[in-house]
Amino acid sequence: MVEFTFSCRNTQRDVMRTLLVLFLVVVTGAEALERCAWAKILKNSGMDGYRGISLANWVCLTRWESNFNTGAINHNTDGSTDYGIFQINSRWWCTDGKTPSANGCNIQCSALLTSNVAVAINCAKRVVRDPQGISAWVAWRNRCRNQDLSSYLAGCQL
């Protein structure tokens, strides 16, 4: 006979974790966007063809950088942090008050973490104006460059 035990303590902990995550999403306004909705936002923001970069490249880049999550935060081994849907780096493009920064986009990193993606899009445009262009993103170099990107826009009514 198999015996199951139920622990209120674990359930309460799980509920508290879930509530904390939901609270943070509501407070920051962060959200994971659906692929086609994100592609439409990018297109409407002038990203298709910006500096010769196709819409599919932008969608691929953000898929692998953040999985379309506006609230994504990742800490790097050099002490810098990547923020938002494009994973903009605090050492070069935004200031977080922790990392010495060039602040090339002249913004607070926290502005990259909301569902209002205009700041993030404008900063991404600034990044690709530098000589590295879209190659500044490791995920693009590793996952998108020289790949068939048609699946990133497949089924999207653009």
UniProtKB/TrEMBL annotation:
Belongs to the glycosyl hydrolase 22 family. Its EC number is 3.2.1.17. This is lysozyme. It comes from the Eukaryota. It is an enzyme of class 3 (hydrolase). SMART domains: LYZ1 (SM00263). Residues 1-32 form the signal peptide. The keyword Cytoplasm does not apply. Keywords: Antimicrobial, Bacteriolytic enzyme, Disulfide bond, Signal. InterPro entries: Glyco_hydro_22, Glyco_hydro_22_lys, Lysozyme-like_dom_sf. GO terms for molecular function: lysozyme activity. GO terms for biological process: defense response to bacterium; killing of cells of another organism.
